Amino acid sequence: MDLVQQHTWGWFIAIYLFFGGLGGATMALGILGELRFNKGKWFGIGVTVLGMAILSFGLLFLVLDLIDPFRFLLAFWIKGIGHSWIARGMVVIMGAYIFGVLYMVAAFFESTTFKKWMGYLAMFCGFGVTTYTGLLLNANVGIPFWHTPALPVLFTVSAFSTGCAILMWVLAGKNDHESEHFFHAIESFDIFLISLELLILFAYFDFARGGNLAVVKSAHLLLGNPIFTIGFLIFGLIMPLILEAYASMKENSRGLAVFASGLVLLGGFLLRYLIVWAGVFQYPHGLAG
Amino acid sequence: MARYGMVMNVKTCLGCKACMAACSQWNQTPFWAEEGGKWRTRVTELEDGKFPEVKRKFFPTICMHCENAGCQSVCPTGATFTNKDGIVLIDYDLCLGCGYCIEACPYDARYEYEKEDLEKDEFYFGEDARHHQVHVDKCTFCVDRLEEGMEPSCAATCVGHARIFGDLDDPNSEIAKLVNSGEAKPLGEYLATKPKVYYIK
Questions:
Q1: Interchain CB distance below 8 Å, B103 and A90
Q2: Strand residues in A121-204 grouped as ranges (E)
Q3: To pair with A223 at 20 to 30 A between CA atoms, which of A38, A98, A141, A198?
Q4: Closest-CA residue in chain B for A86?
Q5: What is the CATH classification number for the domain harbouring A161?
Q6: With contacts defined as CB-CB under 8 Å, which chain A residues touch B10?
Q7: Which of A6, A74, A284 sits opposite B187 (nearest CB)?
Q8: CA A96, CA A90: separation in Å to the nearest integer?
């Protein structure tokens, strides 16, 4: 049995997975915030543009990762939609763009009912983008560490945590009552998400203990890598959790929460990069590349 | 309509790698690439047993042409498809080049045919160059040779009769007998990919 670390996907795919999830979550949470906290049309338009810009930036890296980036138009040929997560992802991403734009138009013209419907659809697609980034890796049967239901859940929770982080940055400079209210709601939600992420990670590695050789190898690669243990676990998860929890109990502590958000974003990226890096094939024969 | 497959007899593989040479010449695979080249078929040297009861084995591999192919399942554009004879093929015109199929294949059967490979292909084969666009590449069971009534180049050139090609649905074929008798078995049955390449070990 040969164990080989995958090398087809690297930095570019990790960057795409991070910004894809971040963009989708920013859009979904931002629109939800606008609809729930009456933040006004410009906030709704602003966060939707921000979400789409982040998603587009991520997509650029997906295109650059193709063998020939000029063939990217073929991505719209989604004949494999019945079984391929890239094809399904394309549909969800297009949905996020289309309903995002329609939501912004409705918000601009203050068409309340239409805005609500388009907002819900854009949120659904934004949510779909965050989830699909995990399902994309999950579909690889050859890499058992990715082929576990825990991965899409982990990526979705992590993406929403990074989305919260971006929204805290956006809201930090605003002093009106609604913004402050929304900021604290997002802050509390992020504390919940980081706690959940820690729990899922624990479960993920606990599953790995009982997994096959490739899963164990992937888990060992991660746990033996200080970028994972110190960079991601400590600086990207535990520290922001403590800082945000502390900030939530103090007055005038937005600066601390904003700093913690930066760490959350760093952690979100490291998680994706390291999970991609730790993908190990278990070839059922004596073959190594 | 057939259901083509191959039996690899590891016991009779000499390790001469004539199959690799024949395949790379016929299919113009990038044997020139760094780190040992890119191949549709490979023969890997293995150690079997523990000292002093140790011997060397040669292990030939190709695309397993799975009935439940992970590569086909993840392909977003439908570029990877199974033809009427059960051969898993790639439509180069539709290949996006995302590498998803390479990641999804648990048998390491696929690789990228990149721009520099196209240039070298043209350099070595001139007007006879067969690759004109970047794509993901893999074994096709030499589908073009089959159409002309010839065996795949690797099986045709095998000195030790270690590669037995044929129709799995023809009960009188040598391959069907080996598979139906249980002598030849697929690799990684737990993966549920249902490979059509079998091994006698």
A1: no
A2: none
A3: A141
A4: B76
A5: 1.20.1630.10
A6: none
A7: A284
A8: 10
Residues in B lying within 8 Å of A, measured between beta carbons:
35-36, 42, 44, 46, 57, 59, 61, 70, 72-78, 94-100, 102-108, 112-115, 133-136, 187-188, 191, 193
Number of domains in chain B: 1
CB atoms within 10 A of CB A7: 11
Residues A50, A7: contact at Cβ < 8 Å? no
Q: Which chain B residues touch A4 with a CB distance below 8 Å?
A: 108
Q: At what angle do helices A177-209 and A239-248 cross, to 10 degrees?
A: 150
Note whether B95 and B136 are within 8 A (CB).
yes
For residue B106, the domain's CATH number is 3.30.70.20
Q: Is residue A152, in this structure, part of any structural domain at all? A: yes
Residue of B nearest to A140 (CA): B104
How many helices and strands, by DSSP H and E, does chain B display?
7, 10
Flag whether A288 is in a domain.
no
Residue contact A67–B135, C-beta within 8 A: yes
Q: What is the pLDDT along chain B (201 residues), one digit of tens a residue?
A: 899 999 999 999 999 999 999 999 999 999 999 888 899 999 988 887 888 889 888 999 999 999 999 999 999 999 999 999 999 999 999 999 999 999 999 898 999 999 999 999 999 999 999 999 999 999 999 999 999 999 999 999 999 899 999 999 999 999 999 999 999 999 888 888 999 999 998
- Chain A nearest-CA distance from B193, in A, is 9
| pLDDT > 80? residue A201 | yes
**Domain region containing B127:** 4-200
Average pLDDT over residues A99-110: 94
The whole-angstrom distance between B15's CA and the closest CA on chain A is 14
Identify the pLDDT of residue B191. 83
Residue A119 belongs to what domain range?
2-283
Q: Is residue A289 part of a domain?
A: no
pLDDT tens figures, A17-35: 999 999 999 999 999 988 8
Per-residue pLDDT at A248: 86
Number of domains in chain A: 1
Q: How many CA atoms lie within 13 A of A283 on its CB side?
A: 22
Q: Which of A8, A62, A68 sits opposite B102 (nearest CB)?
A: A8
For position A288, what pLDDT does the model report?
39
**A9 in any annotated domain:** yes
